[in-house]
Amino acid sequence: MKTIEGTKLLLIDDEPHILQFLELGLTNEGFIVKTALDGLTGINIAHEFQPHIAVIDVMMPGMDGFEVCRLMKKSGAQTSIIMLTAKDDVEDRVKGLNIGADDYVAKPFSFEELLARIYARLRNQFPNLFNEVIYGPFKLNDRKKEFSYLNQTLHLSPTEYELLKYLVMNHGIVLSKATILDRVWGYDFQGDENIVEVYIRSLRDKLHDKNYQVIRTIRGAGYRVDL
């Protein structure tokens, strides 16, 4: 997959040879890369740089990777965080995910694996960086605001587009009406939450989803798209 110009990565690791190796490889892939040898420097760079992805080593002296992750997420940054660890430890992975990490890679790792995980995070969190993103039978072009399903273009209103995009990008997750209203209509929306049902019904018609197999209703909980 071709990297979109302007994609920014921040690497934080106290091992200079790892930083140099990753910086060279990722720069050659077309990313804009900045590096830091310690957590505090990394936090300061992140504040100014606003990276799309931060790759953070867990085991660093002083401020460890968990604290760096926690502070970055607390700041409200939209950065997607991939943690690096020398330990393939379930407790470490759970701890990292619980404080906001988006993915985990255990050392030693291949450059190709890390690159694949970076692209996965970009597709999930920043689909607008790519001309086209594929989610199962769905194809999304956020620049053109176009959606297709099973290779058929869907003719959607702006709100239908944003609703379907939110459902598809969060496939496998049950989304309540309140959550959908907040993310699609905005937290200051004053209308009836049943507007969600109206738009879901319209999307099902356009997807020919008569049996509710694409957009599932989870009784008492909300809606879920399964790919």
Automatic annotation (TrEMBL):
Which compartments is it annotated to reside in?
Cytoplasm
Q: OmpR/PhoB-type domain location, by residue? A: 130-227
Name the keywords, alphabetized.
Answer: DNA-binding, Phosphoprotein, Transcription, Transcription regulation, Two-component regulatory system
Superkingdom to which the source organism belongs: Bacteria
Pfam families assigned to the protein according to its UniProt record, in alphabetical order: Response_reg, Trans_reg_C
InterPro entries hit by this protein = CheY-like_superfamily, OmpR/PhoB-type_DNA-bd, Sig_transdc_resp-reg_C-effctor, Sig_transdc_resp-reg_receiver, WalR-like, WH-like_DNA-bd_sf
Q: Per the record's keyword annotation, is S-adenosyl-L-methionine included, yes or no? A: no
Modified-residue entries (4-aspartylphosphate), positions: D57
The residues that make up the annotated DNA-binding region are 130-227
**Which PROSITE patterns does UniProt cross-reference here?**
OMPR_PHOB, RESPONSE_REGULATORY
Name this polypeptide is given: Response regulator transcription factor
What is the scientific name of the source organism? Paracerasibacillus soli
